[in-house]
Amino acid sequence: MKNYRRLFKFLKGKMHWFFISLLMIIVIQSLAFISPLLVKAVLDDYILGIEYEWNQVVESDEYTVKFNNLYYKQTRFIDENDIVIKDASIILYKNGFYFVDDKVDRSNIEITEENGFFIVNTSFEGNIYSYEALKLNKDEVFSFYEPVIPHLIFYIVVIFIKTIITIVCGFIQAFSINKVINYLANEGRTRAFKNIEYLPISYFEEEPSGKMATRITKDVDGMIIMYRQLLLLFATAVLSFILAYVGMFILNYKLALLTFIAYPIIYLWVRFFLKKLKSIAERVNESRSLLTAKINEVINGIQILQVFNFKKQTVNEFNKINDDYRKEQLKEVKLSTTLGWNMINIMRASITTLIVVYFGIQHFNVAGVVITAGLIYAYNDYLSRIVEPINIIFTQIGAFEHSHVQVDRIHKIIEAPTEDRNKEYIERYKGDIRFDNVWFSYIKNEYVLKGVSIDIKAGEMVGLVGHTGSGKSSMMNLLLRFYDITDPLSGSIYVDNMDISTISKRTYRSNIGIVLQEPIMLKGDIASNIRFGLDNISDEEIIRVLTAMGGDKLIKKFPDGIHQELSRKGVNMSAGEKQIISLARAIIRDPAILIMDEATSHIDTETENIIKQSLEYACKNRTVIVIAHRLSTVYNADKIIVLDHGIKVEEGTHDSLVKQNGVYANIYRSQVANIKDLKNL
After folding, report:
1. Which of 625, 616, 621 shows the shortest CA–CA distance to 592?
2. CA–CA gap between residue 25 and residue 237 (Å, rounded)
3. Domain of 224?
């Protein structure tokens, strides 16, 4: 029920389409309900109704037939004004109609020809009766049909109108269903995608990107399947089932009660089937996710795979995952074909055979039920409508179980706890930053920051230096609030003397810019990558910022300037060019605090000089924190903070730290030595 509540939450604003679909289903099923009764009436009352008892009458009216200069009228049309003289009968035997001037019991009829005369022989309660009969020609047969032709025409018109209404309602139903499922697919993907923006960084570390992509693109189909199943199974099938039984009881309650014999078996079978299927469906979906994740992994890492020749290993891993997926799918197919579809077909075939064998003889009497052709048709039609919902359960339940799993998965994104989405206006920070005895761990009791305390004044350029794993990136993550300090005993972080944990994340980040080690380039041109959602930023402003940063060469390089389209992931640009764009993206927002994460680690010396020039421009009127791999980036920093295994071990300017001959000096000397070695080559 939880998933259905989720589904109806999505349908808010589109519920009228749901009710339209439901109304069309009711109309279609109601029309389907009366169809067997109409056909039965046409067959039994009018086409084969000629065999009903007849009476010879005195006067003629619209229901009388003139035969051998006498008037005859079916018993069912006799009223109080008619004077009945005697009974008569019309018998359909083999390929002909026979008239008997008497009432004939229709049990065990046999007609023979003797000396040009036809004799009707019948037995009743051990007695044999014989009657003379006249074989009717085509014109005589038609004359006996004439009184009911207007009724036949009426029923034919009704059936035609019913068919037209069914077609129109079917079209409206299909349109309304497609309207809703398109909305569901779009809304599901949109909500999941929007929610990603507000998910904490920790969520992405736990969930592979391949799985996330699968959930947004593929698992949203689960809601579509569930909606279809809701209408198909719980509306169409259930309504069809109920109305079919109403029809069967209208026909004859004794025949209707015969079908209940099968339900205990069906119930036990369905329970067993569903129990088996649920566990398989979960494994199939998990295998599919692993397969998708592996494909994404290979695509994202294709360069490394090709260079280091991991192809064989990768193919083997893929084949194993793919084979596991195939095996789980095969188990599902085997279950559906053996316990599902075949079972229904066996049941249907058995019941149909029973009908043919047990009730297939016209005029047969079983337990007081007179079996007619129309009754057989209507009964079998209603029986198929009863069996069909059961068939739907077995044939669709696999997709149904999958849809529940998929809906659960997509809602793990949609309903995942998010960061505070509130964004309020806040005055631009001065830029004072203070870490007060900060302890932090990603895994309980495995601290990556250990009692770090630092003070950064507004407008300062500060370098964070340390070996890999020293805690530099963790400080950035905390300052950007990708992670929060949850334990009050683990210290606090302040900006302008405000505890940053007391401000909504979106509000807090509105005054912070970031330049990552690996610049993110989005589909579009250079301008759109710099503007990045700020529609009020003009092309002139973008060019001004780039020029001030020393990025005018970038503008001149491309024939379309800032409107140069970027290829996938910006592969038509160098690492340095992408970094300049990334830095311009941050600066154009005029943040009070700018954080640069290893911004020069992957660029050449020439581009590094441009980045240094950019930094000089970036440092104006803002606090800049540079996580430095190359110390040349922070030579001129107002302050350099050195971390070692999560502990602040040194603090000072470049010159003062070199003189201390500590951790910083060792890093500096190693980089200088490497540069000298390169020059000597």
Report:
1. 621
2. 10
3. 198-414
Summarised one tens digit per residue, pLDDT across range 315-325 is 777 778 778 77
Final residue belonging to a domain, choices 83, 118, 147 = 147
For 251-265, what is each residue's pLDDT tens digit? 777 767 767 766 676
**Beta strand 461-465 pairing with 639-644:** parallel
Candidate from 170-179, 204-213, 319-328, 526-535 with smallest mean pLDDT: 204-213
The helix or strand, by DSSP H or E, that contains position 36, with its residue range, turns out to be: helix 15-40
Per-residue pLDDT tens over the stretch 178-232? 888 777 777 777 777 777 777 776 666 666 666 666 667 667 776 777 777 666 6
Residue linked to tokens 């129109």: 168
Based on the fold, state whether residues 471 and 338 are members of the same structural domain.
no
Residues 657 and 566 in one domain: yes
Domain harbouring 540, CATH code: 3.40.50.300
Burial of 649 (0-12, 13-18, 19+ CB in 10 A): middle
Overall pTM surpassing 0.90 (yes/no): no
Average pLDDT over residues 166-177: 88
In one-letter notation, the amino acid at residue 166 is T
Residue 401, C-beta contacts closer than 8 angstroms, at least 6 positions apart? 274, 277, 278, 281
Instruction: Kindly tell me the number of DSSP H helices and DSSP E strands found in the chain.
Output: 23, 22
* 299 and 399 part of one domain: yes
Count structural domains, the chain: 3
Instruction: Provide the 3-class DSSP secondary structure of residue 131.
Output: strand
